């Protein structure tokens, strides 16, 4: 690898971690928030989704409650919308759907409820043959992939003041984004955190 490319990769790595830390750590300021729906089933968010980085092993599933974010590859940050490819649901197959419901937690943060139809979370089959009706989800905050989801609930402890786009997409066992009519199967909501 050339020195210039290596330097750019290191800069991208540092920037990716800075973004991750800002999202995950800058979060501890207050919890007064309102969840505002902005997307529906199959709706594509107006903000392009970016993988923070997917240069990791897919040999083992991640813990359901663990955070799974990585820095960007290189100067091509933002070009990884569907790094693992896409899987269009063929005609005649049941169409998976996803709806995101945000419940403010009684103490702090939010409980994200991921309601699905024609889809089953299957962490035990991650990295195996893809199916149109099973797999896992991806959680994005403000267009940045935060973690994989292996179940119907996720606790989000806190967010910095401001308006945040929360998106959940459905993905097959082989990590492909599930698609219907050329659109990702995903749901988006907003959380507004007051200063």
From TrEMBL:
> In which residue ranges is the amino acid composition biased (Basic and acidic residues)?
52-61
Which residues span the membrane? 21-41
Keyword Membrane attributed:
yes
Task: Tell me the superkingdom of the source.
Answer: Bacteria
Q: What keywords were assigned to this record?
A: Membrane, Transmembrane, Transmembrane helix
**Region Disordered: start-end pairs:** 52-82
Q: What's the protein name?
A: DUF4399 domain-containing protein
